[in-house]
Write a structure and sequence with these properties.
By secondary structure, the chain is an alpha+beta fold. Helices cover 24% and strands 29% of the residues. The protein contains three helices and 14 strands. The protein has helices at 3-12, 19-27, 31-68; strands at 102-104, 109-114, 118-119, 128-133, 137-139, 142-145, 150-159, 169-178, 183-187, 201-205, 214-216, 219-222, 227-232, 236-238. It is rod-shaped and about 190 Å long. The termini are far apart. The model is unreliable at 15-24, 194-198 and 206-210 (pLDDT under 50).
Length: 242
């Protein structure tokens, strides 16, 4: 084969150039510049994909945590109860004091009986009234005044029956029970009354007498031994009865 034919044959069977190279040639870039541009583009694309993947993963984890988190349980506010202020107890001594005396409290019941008969017809203001203690007085089981101890009172008003059916009236004041340790002051009512806090006056009448008194001709008549109820007027310290 001739030399011209050989060259023509080589030119005919020559492999086409790479397309990128053709594009490279068309846009006027060198091979070196094109490779740098292509590598940068691929790196940027890879970085973008990595960022998108990380963002998606973080969002998925956050959503899962919010979904799986237990619901907050509401806590009801409970008001703390007010603490009551302690009240100091008043000590009550039931035993003897240093001197061996026991305290008999005011308001204690005292059962008495008349030692003499009385009448509104014959009694006068200022007359003494003799009584006796019916029951023992005790403090914590210790007798401080024995039954039979004398008690004293006084007539404060005596009116016999009058004309037009007027009934008689007899008032007495209960003073005290006498003991070896002292006088136990008395009053005729359970509670304290009057300006000085006590009253020993007992009003005895025919119609409304508290003792169920016998009356004769509308006069107040008290029999010997007739009971009457009184109360201790003031606190008093007493030795045990001998």
């Amino acid at each position: 084969m001739k030399t011209g034919e050989i060259e023509a044959h080589k030119a005919k069977n020559k492999a086409p150039e790479f397309h990128c190279y053709q594009v490279n040639r068309q846009i006027g870039l060198s091979d070196q510049s094109f490779l740098c541009f292509f590598e940068g583009l691929m790196r940027a694309l890879s970085l973008f994909c990595a960022c998108a993947l990380c963002a998606g993963s973080a969002f998925a984890q956050q959503t899962a945590a919010a979904t799986n988190a237990p619901a907050a349980t509401p806590v009801a506010a409970v008001a703390s109860p007010a603490t009551p202020t302690p009240v100091a107890a008043v000590p009550v001594s039931l035993g003897p004091d240093a001197s061996g005396k026991y305290l008999l409290r005011e308001g204690e019941d005292v059962n008495l009986a008349f030692m003499d008969a009385l009448s509104s017809k014959t009694s006068s203001e200022g007359d003494a009234v003799n009584l006796r203690l019916v029951d023992d007085l005790k403090v914590n089981g210790v007798v401080v005044a024995k039954a039979g101890s004398p008690a004293v009172g006084e007539v404060t008003k005596a009116e016999k029956n009058g004309m037009m059916g007027k009934a008689g009236q007899l008032n007495i004041r209960l003073d005290y029970v006498k003991t070896d340790s002292g006088k136990i002051r008395l009053r005729g009512t359970k509670g304290k009354e009057g300006a000085n806090g006590t009253t020993g006056t007992v009003v005895l009448t025919v119609l409304f007498g508290p003792l169920g008194l016998i009356h004769h001709g509308s006069n107040v008549e008290i029999k010997k031994g007739q009971p009457i109820h009184a109360f201790v007027s003031d606190d008093i310290a007493l030795l045990p009865a001998a």
